[in-house]
Design brief:
CATH class of the largest domain: Alpha Beta
Structural class: alpha+beta
Number of helices: 4
CATH superfamily of the largest domain: YefM-like domain
Oligomer: single chain
Largest sheet: 3 strands, mixed
Helix content: 55-70%
Length: about 100
């Protein structure tokens, strides 16, 4: 996978679009750190690509939540414990 800078994106846009067509993916960097992934698509596959990306992000978010629950020792909660936590959270949100 090729890395390109924000400066390159501004100054060499047409060259980068051609490169994206060849490479299929480019990583955009700012100050040497990745900030975005440019991924080639077309009209026919756009919706499918977008759905896949969103599903992947949701899966990553769920895995992060699960790791956090394990770290806090919350994986051994019973159904009753979970219901109690839900009720407590709902009480905390109520505004008079």
């Amino acid at each position: 996978m090729k890395f390109v800078t924000v400066r390159d994106l501004r100054g060499k846009t047409s060259e980068l679009w051609k490169e994206l067509d060849r490479e299929r993916e480019l990583v955009l960097t700012n100050n040497g750190k990745p900030i975005a992934i440019l991924s080639a698509t077309d009209e026919d596959s756009f919706e499918s690509c977008l759905w896949t990306l969103r599903r992947s992000r949701a899966s990553d978010a769920l895995a992060k939540l699960q790791r956090g629950a394990e770290e806090r020792g919350l994986t051994a909660l019973t159904s009753e414990d979970i219901e109690t936590e839900i009720q407590n959270a709902r009480k905390d949100r109520k505004v008079d």
